[in-house]
Structures are given as C-alpha cells and as structure tokens.
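Re: export button greyed out
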Amino acid sequence: MTEAEHKKDLHVDEAEKLIPLVLEIIPGHAAEGLISVYEPGRYEGESLRGLCERILNKTNLSIEEQLILEDISRQLEGGKLFCRGQEISGTALEFAVSEKTEAGEKYFYVPVRAIKPQEGGIFSSGPE
Amino acid sequence: MSATNIIAEQVRLDRQLRIEGWNQNALENARIGVVGDDDLLASLFLMSASALGVNKTVVIAPVLNVSLIEIAERLNPLFNLTHVEGYYTHPILDEIFDGCDLVVDLSHFGLANKLLMQKGFEDGCPIVRGFCYEDINEQGFKIFTYLRGREWREIERVISPQNLPMDHFDDGVFDTIVAGIALEETKNILMGGQVSDEIITYSRRKLNFSQKQTNLLVVGAGALGVFVGLGLAYAGYRSITFMDLDTVDMTNLNRQVFFHDAVGESKAGALSRKLNKLFQMDCKARVEDFTKNTDVASYDAVFDCVDNFETRIVLSEKCRDEDKLLVSGGTSVDAGQVVIYTPTDNGFTPAELLGLYDIVEKRGIEAHRRERASCSYQPDPSVVMTNQITAGFMVDGYRMLLHGQKPRSIFYNSRTNDKILSERRYKT
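Workaround output, generated via the alternate export path:
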C-alpha cells in the first residue's frame, strides 16, 4: 500500500473511536487470515499482543479457519507476528486504520502478519 | 562444450539444482526474447538470466551495457545473445522472436508495449512487462505478466503513456529489483509455476537531487553483498568497505555475479576490486569476520548482508550500542526481508524485531557452531533473484532515509501475488 493510500485513512477523531475493531492475523503474504471483531469497550485497554493471542487460542473454528490457523502456526515456527512491519507492542489502536463497510459503517482495521525471517546462506530457517 | 565445462556448469548451478522441483532443463532449453530501450534494465536482466542458466536470448534494444553483458558471457559459457540494435516499433520485427517461449518487455514506450500485448494475444506468447516510472510526487516500478486471457482493463496501467522512444525516468536500484522480479516470473513460466495475477507495484515519494556522500560498511560480500554494492554504486555512493572472511567458491557463481574470475580469492577483495573498476569507486576490503570488537566508528551506516542469525545479532547490538544506522537484509530461495534500524528513533533492532534471539536460543548456539564446522553440512539452496531484489530494497531504504523519508520494513515473497509487503506503522 502506498503512503498516499495510507494517509487517506488517518483522519480519526474521538467520536470515531467508538467503533468496532476488526483484527486479522494473516499467515505470511497470504490474502486472507483469521478475523475477529471486537465491539467498542472490548479492546481499547488491551494490548495488541493479547488480542492476537485470544484469536490464536480460539477453538470452535470452521475447517477453513483451521487451515489458516495451521498456516499461521507454520509461520510462527521460527517466525513472529508483525503489524505493518513492526513489533506488535502497544495497543491495537496504535496500529489501526479507519475503514468503511460497503454500507458506510466505520470500523478500525488492524492487519497482523505471521512471518518467518529469512537467514540466507548455509543454514535453513526451516521450510516455508 | 567439453565434458569438463559441463561438469563445471553443474557445480556452478549446484545451489539452485538443490531446490525441490527445480527444472534446470526448462531454463537451459528456453529461448527468451527481450525488448529494451536503455542500456541498464535489459542488461541487468540478461546478466541475471545468464547466472540462472538461461542460454538463449534474443534482444531488441538500441544499446546494451558492455560490462554487464561481458559478465553474463563469462559467467555462463553457454550464454548466447543475439542483439538487434534498435527499437521495437513495427510488427515486422516479430520475426526475430520466432521460437521464443516468452518475451520480456522492459521498454518505456507505448508502441512497443502495445505491439507486444498484441503478439501475446495473437500468438499466445507470454509477455513479462517490467518498468520504472516517475510522476509528480512518486517514483516506483511495476511488473505484470500477461498471459492470453488476461485482457483486463488494468493492463492500461502497464502501457507507457508516451508512444515513441524518448527520455524517461530510469534508476539503477529499481532496475536491479525489476530485473529480479521479471526473471522470477520468467522462471515460473518456463517451469510451469504460478505467476502473479496482479500488477506488482512499489512506490515511494520522489527523492530530491542532493546526494550526500557517506562512508559505508557492508558486512558480507556474498550474494546480498554483491548486489548491495552494485545498488550503492548505481545510487551514487563511492566510499564502501566490504567485510568478509570467505573466499569465492565455484558454487557461488549462480548468484554472486561479479566473481566469475575470482574463484579462490577473498570475496571482499574481489568485490571491491570489481566495483572500483566498473564505477571508479573507492571501495576497500576487510578480510575478517564481524565481531563485537569490530570498530565501526568511522562508518556512517552499516549494511547487514550476512548469512546467519548469530552475526546478525552481533551487528544489531553493535549498531545499537554505537548509535549506527543499520540496514539489515536476509534472503532465502523465494523470500527476503529488509529491516532498518535508525538510532534516533530508539526503535527495535533487526535482531529484536525479527525475534532472532528466540530462534538462536531454540536451535542452540553450540549445536549450530558444530554444524557449521562440519564438512558434511547441507548447503541451503540459493538463487540470484531474491538476492538482487532484497539488496535493491536495502539500498532504496537507505537513500530514502538520507532524503528524510521514514524507513519501511519490506517483506518479499515470490510465491505470492503481490510479492512485496511494504508497510509502515501509522498511529491513529
């Protein structure tokens, strides 16, 4: 995403903060990940890492979600969770961009990716 | 070709022949057409294609870079280049692409782009299109693979607005990346792999024209170090010290493109000599490993091109302790990442951000050392593309910083559609 594309989403005022948060954990560079929606009041005080752990510890997943979770787990063997290329320290709001549904409802979106760092050279960091 | 040469070529390509499902015959037997309109992009593509073991190429371009083509020919004794000097401006020139498995369009004028799309549609010939661009505020590049059936409206975005050849924006650092991604797509077509069905794009704000000279240390003069050195040269930096204890091995030559005449020599020495000759630079060599006692005081920035997490941790800690800017890169066969540490931001070092402490602790430092010392180790597969792509992003990240732009972590993965994740944290 270009800088210009990011910037258009950055107009957040106090009123807008009373909107749901959509958190998505994506395996590697995949297009889709595990999604969880948090209503206002349920996420503001929590760390982003805590929210991610809650998603990763979910049970009762659909078959499709289980497959995504397996992909995430594979990446996390020797990999880490990143948000916008950065450590997921702090709250989810620090990483959120404001988006709208087709019906015009606003929500915060936070994409977190599970990525395995590449070493190069003689020793493998494990299969992709 | 003699039996000795055939064996030598097998050894040279050893590190990519180890890749599961790799089909070297598909590369060796392919005939690839290339259309260019400046000397650099097409030549960089040809050099890397030769390193990968592509043997038959036919090119229409007004001029090619003599040094890069000489490297291509010396790296791969089977490399055969037919160069038609001129511009691709008429369908009658199609004939020279007869028998080509695909055409790589690296030109910057709409007439060639349209003629080739037409050829792709009529003949079913895949077209890999890659180019740099510049508009009022941004500079970047785009790559798209056209296969018959992909007559999408989006194709308009990869047709150059000016119809005939003329002056255009070009950038050696972007060219290195574009050539690498175009070659990745070429390899996938030839081996029956998946090509991207999106326009692969990268852009950032324009750089201003002032070029501050800095004194740089590049740790690691292997595949990543070679392309970081090349990218820094194209970006205009002239004072670079390369640090590496290793010597050049025959199996390095499928990706460490400057070492065709340096087997047995020090990598740091060979790389600095080559860049000094090609670009009239002031490169120096330090034939040693980087340790916590290495003096980095005289350098403005350090480039991490090493091949192991242990040294990457030492580099991170050293640069943090001495307030040095650190540009860290890492690669595998199909992926790579770039993480930049700026002391003024008090952010995470690459080792911290990438979680390298945990990884190293889990696998056990002592076990790792024993494995490294063993002569029975299994080398990781490696190819030229991810190294030139990652190196290009490392150099671009560095020059962005010097021009007052914020660094971005880059995660590249050749197996995915968009390939480049380049995201920055925005506080709400």
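Chain B has 14 helices and 15 strands. The button fix ships in the next patch.
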